[in-house]
Amino acid sequence: MARYQYPNPLDLLFFAGEHATKRAGLPGVHVHLHLELRGRVDVEGLRRALLALYRVYPAAGARRELDIRTGRPRWRLDGPPPDMRRVVRLHALTPPTDDQLQHDVEALFAAALDTVRLPPVQFHVFRGLPAGDVVVVRWPHALTDGRGAFLLLEELVRLYDETPDPATLTSAGDERRDDFARMLADYPLWRRVRMMLELHHPPQAHRGEVLHLAQTPAATDPGPMHYLRRHLTPEQTAQVGANMRRIAGASPSGDYLRACGLHALHAVMPKPVPPHALYTAMSLLDNRRRQGPAVCWNLTSALPITVPTDAAGDAAELTRLIHRQTIAHVRARTGLRYYAAFSLLMHPPTAYVAAVLRATMLAGRRQTSGLMLAGTPSLRLDFIGPFSRPLPRFCGAELHNYYGYSTLLPEPGFALHVNLTHQRLNVSGVCFEARVPARTLAALMDRFIATLLDA
Q: How many CB atoms are closer than 10 A to CB 82?
């Protein structure tokens, strides 16, 4: 097994964002996944399965450290075994209510994630609700995205169920993947510079003032983060699927979801909306090679989408606009151009990049339609599909539902996260109270769900 896992430039960008947000007094860039169980999870069995997981995917049990030669972070894979009582922590809900769970999880959400002394994937078991435990899985975005975390959890469940002898387990080789480098192997320095410059002219981009829901200037202290949840029934989820097929056809589901999100955003935006203005979003494309699971690598392209406010009243028209721009990005290889830019911009020490990001973040700079490399979309909406196979149980307990969300930057001050299980659609919202109040986010989420059901 390798001794270190070296992050790719996109991972390094998340490391820089982690450093920048912590220096700004925020908890960093990390992700939460909630597993709602029926009954009690086998805590000791979960810990044993995790130790086995570390042998298959060593980065899940790694520690973060700095390379003294480059000043860049890396994952050390051969550290001592961790204290599993700190990796899987048990919390008693007092009183055992949903309100107390919300309070305790929001406190956890606002806490920094220690990846220097502990492995990056950490579990918190909240016990006391009548239905059963709620397991919160936390990990830094610099390690992996939601899809990578899903693959880790699927492997964790397999190891729990099969209880193999750890001595027989070997690494799946994830730490040796070089997907990012392979994509740019045929592009010398001069071509990468040219590719980065061409990002100033996104294909089919509209021009105009970009609108945002937060109306106040970005503050150094944006207030506490809150999260909200909405769970659709299986019947409602089937209705959303039927609407999506009718309107979007063969278009990616993410295009339709972002169209409905922008439609809802337009409905709750303070009036009057300026004429000839724009809403922006990001279309996400997974670039992992399919020759095997790639867990601990961020390889998703965020492709900029711009739509005029005049079209925001029609979800079907928005879907077509977003799909056309997504196809134009694919043909123009915009994702590869972003990767070329990251390979150049992340060459300096990560601390230097973090300082630039922090200055930009605290200044509250918003994007324009002409410079899309480092901007803030009007709507951040992340979508992830179900586990690759149904998981009826998780470490000894029935898995009833699961949903996730991640931490925020002061701009745009809120985000929507949509996940599809094998039975239902869930919508999670996160906001900074001083930027986008929880009541505003709740109104946006309710309008979004109404659009999904009625489009």
A: 18
Q: Tokens standing for 136?
A: 């919160």
* Strand 381-384 to 414-420 pairing: parallel
At 364, the pLDDT band (50, 70, 90 cuts) reads low
Concatenated DSSP letters of 53-97: HHHHSGGGG-EEEE-TTT--EEEESS-PPP-HHHHEEEEE-SS-S
Q: Are residues 165 and 72 in contact, defined by beta-carbon separation less than 8 angstroms?
A: no
SS3 346: coil
* Three-state SS at 23: helix
Task: Report pTM.
Answer: 0.94
User: What is the share, in percent, of the chain residues with pLDDT greater than 70?
Assistant: 93
Q: Angle between the 253-268 and 438-454 helix axes, to the nearest 10 degrees?
A: 130
Inter-CA distances, 237 with 62, 230, 419, 422, 452, Å: 38, 12, 11, 10, 9
pLDDT in tens, 19-29: 988 888 889 99
Q: Whole-angstrom Cα distance, residue 350 to residue 13?
A: 8
Residue 281 pairs in a beta bridge with: 305
Q: What is the largest CA-CA distance in the chain?
A: 66
Q: Which residues contact 378 (CB under 8 A, 6 or more apart)?
A: 210, 211, 212, 213, 262, 265, 278, 279, 280, 281, 412
Closest C-alpha among 163, 178, 437, 157 to residue 297:
178
**Is residue 100 a contact partner of residue 94, using CB atoms and an 8 Å limit?**
yes
Distance in angstroms (rounded) separating the CA atoms of residues 428 and 417: 5
pLDDT in tens, 144-170: 999 999 999 999 999 999 999 989 999
